[in-house]
Amino acid sequence: MRWNRLFWPLILIIVGGLLLLNNLKIINVNLWEVIIPIALILMGLSALTGSLQHASRKASQSLSIPAEGATSARIRIRYGAGRVTVMGQDMPGQLLSGAFEGGVEEVIRRDGNALNVDLNASSDNWLWWDGGQRAWSFGLSKAIPVALDIEMGAAETRFDLTDVKVTDLRLKTGASSTSLSMPANVGMTTARLEGGAASISVQIPPEVAARIRWEGGISSINIDTKRFPQSGNTYESKNYAEAKNKLDLRIEMGMGSVDIR
Question: In what helix (H) or strand (E) does residue 180 lie, and over which residues does it extend?
Fold first, then answer.
């Protein structure tokens, strides 16, 4: 049983019980003198057990998701603070495999030949205690076309998708530092990046043509205009229309910086 789910119910039960006994004249106590020590004891137990749970999880942080004949996949990633590293890997029969320090909660659904996967940061943290540093590092199959929907918090992330068949990418990030390498040989990739106070570095493979549309608040963008000539808020490769592999990229930034090469 996890303390983050027990703490407030226990406090309410104890307070309600003491109020009832006090009103019935069964006991006569100063409630504050009782409640505060009990709350501190429960908080201490919560912090202790949270650390112990984290320590016990470290030995079993691996996760592998079999492809089971899927010809496409959609993966949703919801992540708070920490570090994330994702890259393409040769792993026959697998969609995803890696290590998830700090915990992961996965939901897997199959729809015909498509797999839908949700990866969420573990919810067994209590209030402000994280129980340790969270760090995810996993590989994605190079063989299965995939759509990625990613939401990050205050994270340091590296997505090397050069060898991954990403057809659609949605990345929303907060106060973070993100390095993103785009797919090299997919045909057409549609991508949308949304950032708050973020620093985002995007690498587009030389063989990929790109159309880049930019909307920014108090932010800056640095783009190789020799490779991607500018017209207003749009930057586009000269051979975009006829290119075999192309990227349609839309960027919306609040405060932060974007560097594209």
Answer: strand 177-181
